[in-house]
Amino acid sequence: MIKRMDHIGVIVNDLAAAIEFFVDLGFELGGQMKMKDKLVDRIIGLDDVQTEVAFVRTPDGSGQLELIQFNSPTYQDDTPPPPANKPGLRHLALVVDDIETVVARLRARGTELVGELVQYEESWKLVYVRGPEGII
């Protein structure tokens, strides 16, 4: 039986940029570490794994992301970021105090909007933004 969700892993090529993006959104930086271990090789099915890892968590502690940069083996793909309707984990949904201020701050630092900021019916204002590595 599931007790809770612990975290979501997000693979990135630039750990520093990913940390900066999520901290700017309001996440808090937790632990950081480097990993090089044969047990990690066995767990994920790759050889000679060397990673740098950072955990960022929501201020209320209800959720966290594990940001992982693989230094070895590396993955090279020059295809553009996938659209929002590609199957798989496509977005992280966050609740913020003032979405207009958050969007303005993100746009000022060059973050791309996927669509536009919209009032959805009578409930939420929503927008998709594309962060580092194409994360929506």
Shape: globular
- Find the structural class using helix and strand composition: alpha+beta
Number of strands: 8
Mean pLDDT: 89
Order of helices and strands: EHEHEEHEEEE
Radius of gyration: 16 Å
What low-confidence regions span 5 or more consecutive residues with pLDDT below 50?
A: none
Strand content: 25-35%
Largest sheet: spatial strand order: 1-4-3-2
Classify the helix fraction into a percent range: 10-25%
Cα distance spanning the termini: 30 Å
Largest sheet: 4 strands, mixed
User: How many distinct helices?
Assistant: 3
What does this structure look like?
- There is one protein chain.
- The chain is α+β, with helices and mostly antiparallel strands and 136 residues long.
- Helix content is 21%, strand content 29%.
- The chain has three helices and eight strands; from the N terminus they run βαβαββαββββ.
- It has helices at residues 15-25, 38-44, 99-108; strands at residues 8-12, 28-35, 50-57, 64-72, 112-113, 118-120, 124-126, 129-130.
- The strands form three sheets. A four-stranded mixed sheet has the order 1-4-3-2, covered by helices on one side. Strands 5-8 form a two-stranded antiparallel sheet.
- A hairpin with a 3-residue loop joins β6 and β7.
- The mean pLDDT is 89.
